[in-house]
């Protein structure tokens, strides 16, 4: 078995069939598809088993629901038999050549451990040419030019300084776009950190970028679906996960970060704490809101707003009228 594709699934009946079909349609045939059903209460398991009956490459497992994507991905990794591993959430899709192109990149360049690609963001039609692309729309290749070297065609190698770039600018790697040699995880005592509700993937990408060689295919090969039931729609959980991942990374990278890097990271964290404070303010948890505003100030005074802080002393009944009426 060459490639293991790990698909966590929880109450994903609305999307799972399309996700599995996109995997079954891969031009690289030597794959196994590991569906980890997280005790779904809808038709998720039935859909997975229906596809498994049609395609022997699909293996379906059901495990207890811990409420974290990290747990499902780690379970899938323990079940994986492939030399290479990649991931797809049950509501997302792969381009037909995604696995083949990333596999070719790693096989042609044994110095690379991980390769990632761009990701299309969509709501209804993944093939709409007007859809956003995560990295293309950030002008990634030009923005990161000093940290990349062209290897062949649209394949780039990431220099050692890329870790500092992704730590201080934007993460670049996304779960749907990452493809790696399974052996690179053997040196990690923790794979996806199960203490994270959200952000466990970012945390792992930072750790891998710190010590491995990474490549980038400048092409969108995955499709990320936006919908209202996505876990990332939980704004507060998303901010908390982002803070946890970036805080751990700030501590981890102090031996290579420049003073300017540290200042930028502290500014980013200050902004995230400010966002968290405002969310607690809207939830009428004024004590927590004040504490998070102070943490924002401690990370970077430039992000602090005295007026926002003082609003946490407004009577809750008035806040309900002025800020929560909609």
Key attributes of the depicted protein:
12 helices; eleven-stranded mixed sheet; 326 residues; alpha/beta
Overview of the molecule:
With 326 residues, the protein is an alpha/beta fold. It is built from 12 helices and 11 strands. It has helices at residues 16-24, 44-54, 69-79, 98-108, 140-143, 162-168, 200-211, 235-252, 259-282, 286-299, 306-311, 316-323, and strands at residues 3-9, 31-37, 58-62, 84-87, 93-94, 114-122, 132-133, 148-152, 155-158, 178-181, 214-225. Strands 1, 2, 3, 4, 5, 6, 7, 8, 9, 10 and 11 form an 11-stranded mixed β-sheet that branches. Strand 1 (3-9), helix 1 and strand 2 (31-37) form a beta-alpha-beta unit. The radius of gyration is 21 Å and the shape is globular. The model has no long low-confidence stretch (mean pLDDT 93).
């Amino acid at each position: 078995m060459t490639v293991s594709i790990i698909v966590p699934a929880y109450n994903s009946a609305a999307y799972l069939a399309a996700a599995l079909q996109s995997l079954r349609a891969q031009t690289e045939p030597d794959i196994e598809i590991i569906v980890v059903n997280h005790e779904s209460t809808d038709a998720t398991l039935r859909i997975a088993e229906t596809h498994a009956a049609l395609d022997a490459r699909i293996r379906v497992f059901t495990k207890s629901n811990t409420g974290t994507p990290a747990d499902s991905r780690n379970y899938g990794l323990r079940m994986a038999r492939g030399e290479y591993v990649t991931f797809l959430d049950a509501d997302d899709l792969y381009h037909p050549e995604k696995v083949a192109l990333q596999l070719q990149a790693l096989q042609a360049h044994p110095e690379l451990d991980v390769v990632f690609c761009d990701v299309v963001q969509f709501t209804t039609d993944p093939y709409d040419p007007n859809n956003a692309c995560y990295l293309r729309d950030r002008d990634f290749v030009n923005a990161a030019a000093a940290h990349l070297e062209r290897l062949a065609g649209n394949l780039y190698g990431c220099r050692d300084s890329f870790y500092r770039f992704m730590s201080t600018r934007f993460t670049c790697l996304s779960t749907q776009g990452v493809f790696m040699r399974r052996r690179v995880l053997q040196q990690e005592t923790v794979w996806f950190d199960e203490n994270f509700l959200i952000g466990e993937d970012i945390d792992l990408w930072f750790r891998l970028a710190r010590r491995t060689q990474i490549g980038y295919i400048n092409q969108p090969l995955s499709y990320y679906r936006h919908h209202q039931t996505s876990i990332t729609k939980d704004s507060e959980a998303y901010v908390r996960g982002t803070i946890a991942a970036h805080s751990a990374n700030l501590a981890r990278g102090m031996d290579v970060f420049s003073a300017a890097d540290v200042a930028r990271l502290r500014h980013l964290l200050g902004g995230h704490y400010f966002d968290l404070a405002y969310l607690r303010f809207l939830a009428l948890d004024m004590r927590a809101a004040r504490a998070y505003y102070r943490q924002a100030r401690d990370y970077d005074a430039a992000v602090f707003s005295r007026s926002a802080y003082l609003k946490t002393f407004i009577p809750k009944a008035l806040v309900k009228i002025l800020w929560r009426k909609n």
